[in-house]
Amino acid sequence: MSDITVPGKVRAWYGLSGEILVENELWHLVRLGPISLPHPPLINLFLRAGLPKENRLRLSFEHEYGHLQTLPLALLHLALLRRRRASLGSWLAALIAHQAVWELAAEGWVVAKLGREYRETYHGRGERPAVFWLAMLGLAALGTLRALRG
Ligand SMILES: [Zn+2]
Question: Three-class SS of residue 27?
């Protein structure tokens, strides 16, 4: 059974429902109850460049859905970085690390869901996925270490 009931409407494994609209390559909207989060899809633009339009939109949708699915993990990571008397640098590092971890989790969810289809989509299409994984891993690790230092 698919966990996508109506195109755009989704429900996370922990029960939170939402709506994801991938309107085009330049604008995405995620709606959680009364909260709307329209945003430019910077990571999706970078990762999906050069792919056929159908693949770009599908993988972008799955990535946004991955953010919803992995929200508890991202919040747990952010909670672990919380310090009572943190410096501005520590707060900035925590926010950067949080976003990097969440991007890794969301794209990791896409990879886990699509498996071979994901690998075949990117086969022979350049180094962008490797750049993404290395950059996000670096930001996540360095930001986490800096944030924990206080
Ligand atoms: Zn993302």
Answer: strand
